[in-house]
Amino acid sequence: MISIVSGPLGNVLLGKGMKEVGSVTSATRSELVSLAMHVLTTGYIWLGIACLLTFFIAHMLLLTWADYSYVQPATSLSYFFLTVLSYFLLGETITPLRWLGVTVICLGVFIVGRTAPSTTPASGAI
Q: From CA 14, how far away is CA 12, in angstroms rounded?
């Protein structure tokens, strides 16, 4: 669950932070330095980075427990959380077709979740 929530939350917070920073209008050295300073002092960016680091650690731990072919589809429930967070935190409009796509993904996750998480022998087994 940590992996499913922290990844999308980190991405949405990075998106919110970058919208706060604004777009790049020219690629001059002074503007890029100014942009970098603004990015490094934006709280949403740092919260997003912290969430993505949490996701990365949780994902690595999951991979020690189960096959990648199980972990990746199971963590795809994050698409649902990403859609909900984008709606509430970024104010994005979610079309019915997009909701249908997210529903199909969640159904696929349900099917994968009914299989064994690991089909390979534990490392170190002789």
A: 5
